[in-house]
């Protein structure tokens, strides 16, 4: 059966490329007969975002013309912390455990402002400690991935987790990103001012949620992929943007 990639992006004060502010984005993989539902879910997400009402929205539908890889979600853990400081300290320790050198972690934090307000992620090379993608104001957007809701809900119940579209999407993304051999670790927290839980993910650590990585009201988000051996950066970015992946528990 034909599968389609359905992607949404929404912004305020015009389109992203015209300097608009990123409000929301989302991804679905859908069969032809479910396209209406997929579009609805994404439209709903764009319309009900706490960052405000978008004035630019785009939903794009594209046939996936490659075989889709299937894989299991990363293992999930949740670390409860008392404060943002504690959360951030744990995040740095996890990154180090995953193999990111301390100097590189420090450099990434110094450049953190750069990664806020982007639609996508920034790529950081662990050897040079420098940003290596060339998508300055956009970042790299990981795409063409999904997890069937029914299968995700079973997983959530088994793992004693609340069903959340947000967690599902973040875990799908982290699973895709961290599966690639060049990814050492990922650091992420939301730009949604009402959502303060973030995570560090890597192959060995899995997806480690940290309950406080910023304060309420803060609109600065972060998504950094720490990469190793980025010699073939183009094929790495192509994997993130184009290789279709289905998560199945
Ligand atoms: C986002 O919403 O932009 C990222 C959310 C990351 C954390 C999701 C979770 O609670 O596991």
Automatic annotation (TrEMBL):
Keywords assigned: ATP-binding, Biotin biosynthesis, Ligase, Magnesium, Nucleotide-binding
Domain of life: Bacteria
EC number: 6.2.1.14
Keyword set includes Repeat: no
Pathway: Metabolic intermediate metabolism; pimeloyl-CoA biosynthesis; pimeloyl-CoA from pimelate: step 1/1
Cofactor section: Mg(2+)
GO molecular function, one term: 6-carboxyhexanoate-CoA ligase activity
Enzyme class: ligase
Protein name: 6-carboxyhexanoate--CoA ligase
Species lineage: Bacteria, Bacillati, Bacillota, Bacilli, Bacillales
Name of the gene this protein is made from: bioW
């Amino acid at each position: 059966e034909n599968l389609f990639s359905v992607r949404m992006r929404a912004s305020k004060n015009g389109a992203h490329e015209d300097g608009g502010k990123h409000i929301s984005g989302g991804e679905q993989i859908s069969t032809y007969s479910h396209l209406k539902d997929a579009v609805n879910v994404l439209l709903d997400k764009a319309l009900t975002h706490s960052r405000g009402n978008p004035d630019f929205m785009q939903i794009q539908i594209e046939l996936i013309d490659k075989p889709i890889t299937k894989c299991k979600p990363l293992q999930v853990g949740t670390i409860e912390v008392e404060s943002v400081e504690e959360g951030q300290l744990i995040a740095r320790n996890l990154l180090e455990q995953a193999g990111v050198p301390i100097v590189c972690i420090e450099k990434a934090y110094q450049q953190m402002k750069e990664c806020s307000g982007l639609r996508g992620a920034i790529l950081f090379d662990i050897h040079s400690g420098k940003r290596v993608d060339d998508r300055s104001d956009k970042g790299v957007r990981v795409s063409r991935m999904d997890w069937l809701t029914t299968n995700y809900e079973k997983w959530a119940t088994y793992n004693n987790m609340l069903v959340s579209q947000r967690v599902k999407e973040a875990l799908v993304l982290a699973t895709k990103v961290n599966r690639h051999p060049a990814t050492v670790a990922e650091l992420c927290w939301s730009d949604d001012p009402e959502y303060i839980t973030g995570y560090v993910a890597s192959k060995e650590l899995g997806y480690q949620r940290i309950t406080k990585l910023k304060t309420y009201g803060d609109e600065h988000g972060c998504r950094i992929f720490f990469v190793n051996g980025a010699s073939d950066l183009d094929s790495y970015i192509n994997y993130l943007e184009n290789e279709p992946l289905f998560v199945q528990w």
